[in-house]
Structures are given as C-alpha cells and as structure tokens.
User: Fold this.
Amino acid sequence: MKRIGSLLVLCLVVAAPAAHASTSLVTEGFVNAPVAEVWRIFTTSEELPKLGVAQGQVDLRLGGQIRTHTDPKGMLGDAETSIYEILAYEPERMLAVRLQRAPASFPHRDALERLWTVLYFTPSGADMTHVRIVALGLDDEPRWNAARAYFERHHRWTLDHLAKQYWPQCARCALEEAEEEMEP
Assistant:
C-alpha cells in the first residue's frame, strides 16, 4: 500500500507544472567535414576562429575555459572578451558550456546566470557531421524574449558560418575561379 501511495505521489510531483518552465533553443545543421575535424574547431585555440571569432583560446578540461574575442584589435581578457566555462564534454560527441562572462557591450546580462549550452556532434557518413546546439535555462516568459532571439540568431549564424566554409563548390564555379586566377 505504501508503495502504491509513493508512486501516486511521485506521479503527482512529476505531473505538476513547474513554476518557471524552461524551454530549449535548438539549432541544427550539417558540416561537410568529419566529426573529428568539427570537434577540433570547437575545442582548439588554433581552429576556433573558423567559428567567426577573431581570437580564441581553449583550455579543454572540466572547469576549463573557452575565451573568444570578435575584434582582431582587441585583447583576450579585456572587457569585450567572452568567457565560457566548460561544464562537461565527451570527445567528438558532446560539449557543455556556460557563458561566465559576456562582452561588456552584451545587452542581455540578466540571462547569463540562467543559460547553458550543449553542443552535440554526430557523424553523418564519413565526411559529414550533424551539429546540434541546444541552449537551456531561459524561461518561456516575455522578459526573456530578446535574449532568446539573440541566442537563436547567434547560434544560427555560427553554425551557418562554419558550414559555409565546407560547402562543396560546383564544378562550373571552380572552373571560373581557376580561370580568374590565371588572368593577368
């Protein structure tokens, strides 16, 4: 009897709506590169600029940091540096980060303490990777709409920027480009 009561209580607790329901923002896409290469882009200082940042530094370990700067004239560590804390990772499969410090010019500071992002990397054939970016922690309340819209745009731009670097070029475009290089 106690067991049934416990199950009923458990079901009621699980079924009860949360006071602040958190929703996720999901951005997905494919990159025409092997998963190992895409993983390196997100997790090494040398490759990080392929994500559209001017400078980057990665300390890949639990509690480590990913620091980025969008201004090539800026300095990592100044007020416009983004600092992400590495919460967890599984090499070539998953990376979880939390934005610890946004650039001083970032307009949605109140959202930072609530937000974390999980990136999933899934091989899709020998030379293609499915990337899924999931931002979590923002409530589905009107006061978070601007922050949600910002992160939706930012994640879409980042993924598209990366994917474009690996888009195959059509044969005609490659021929025209080669001819242009040969012209004096």
